[in-house]
């Protein structure tokens, strides 16, 4: 499992947090998701042998947020 922290802009409420969490939870290979609205950081662990990081960032971006 690889640990990652992404900078995600556009999150500012509990709905935003849940939306990002849900988009990542849809992947079986993702675990330990943490969303910090104050800093805009989204941290998680994922199995890089079964999921590409680009797939995960696209899932967040599909919810309307920008991943930097």
TrEMBL record:
Stretches assigned to the HMA domain: 2-68
UniProt keyword Metal-binding, yes or no: yes
Gene Ontology molecular function terms on file: metal ion binding
Matches recorded under InterPro entries: Heavy-metal-associated_CS, HMA_dom, HMA_dom_sf
Keywords: Copper, Metal-binding
UniProt-listed PANTHER family: P-TYPE CATION-TRANSPORTING ATPASE (PTHR46594)
Protein name: Copper chaperone CopZ
Native organism: Pelagirhabdus alkalitolerans
């Amino acid at each position: 499992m690889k640990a990652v922290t992404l900078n995600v802009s556009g999150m500012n409420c509990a709905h935003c947090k849940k939306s990002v969490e849900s988009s990542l939870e849809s992947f079986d290979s993702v675990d330990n998701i943490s969303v910090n609205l104050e800093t805009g950081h989204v941290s998680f662990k994922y199995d890089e042998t079964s999921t590409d990081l680009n797939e995960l960032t696209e899932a967040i971006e599909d919810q309307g947020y920008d991943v930097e």
